[in-house]
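Fold it.
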Amino acid sequence: MEKKINLIVDKIENDIRVDVFIKKRKDAVSRTRIKKLILDKKLTINNKVVIDPSKKIYFNDQIKLIIPEPKKASLKPYKFNLDIVFEDKDLIVLNKPAGIVIHPGAGNFDNTIVNALMNYNKNSFSNIGGELRPGIVHRIDKNTSGLVVVAKNNLTHEHLSNQFNKHTINRVYQLLIWGKVRPSKGKIETFIKRSSKNRQMMEVSSSKGKKAITNYKTLEIFENDNIPTLSLLECKLETGRTHQIRVHMNYLGNSIVGDDKYKKKFNSLKNIDPLLEKILIKLNRQFLHAKTLGFIHPKKNKEMTFNSILPNELQIILKTLRNAVK
């Protein structure tokens, strides 16, 4: 049975965010859950639907929030060999391979990390994210590999979400880009919004969207007469926007090798080493790997940092490049 919350703003609650207001009045409902309900059009202010969790409210405003009856998850277990780096009673840290999406969505409801988690232990994950995203605190793209943390209970989920929101999570990625960036290290600070031309893509904006900050440094540059110039970079995120690193590299004019959305035309390359060309043509993912993930453990209040080595298919590319420039 759905639940309805009806509230009226007092004088002392004037000019605060609606999600903060509801959380203060209804402490049993997590702020993450409140935000999701607002985005799902379950909130009205003075009988008008509002989908902005940061919307300011004022004295005597009438606030109504509908909490739907929880749906029973109908997730089909997926037999998939999860690479579990760490696990305790509160969370799991996974090393995700490229080629699999994190949670069910349009066109793929069965073969995801969430379905694999259901096969692993279907009764052991938080439900804050909704019935199709049990345990999922954050995501990395389908064709990106690397570390992801999954929450086993709502307290852990809420705590980790707050760390992501406050940008205190340590996230470091390795990537191979076309060309070289100048300066060789620096900070990219822009706004990112959904593309007006393709709703599946994001783009840099001068003022609209969400603030996105990427710190980068060049680790290696590969260049000679037989290969196109390529650079191995390390990026540390201050924010975690959709496709952030991919969009920022494309913005600099140095798209990530293997990126099928934000890409450089491969067929324009000439005088390329045949072995390298063969390997790059066969690459069915972007050369982007979530190498480091660090956070404060919600229950132990202890800093934890995990590292993941590059997958074999990416190591082969680097080995080939290093041999080519000897």
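The chain has a mean pLDDT of 91.
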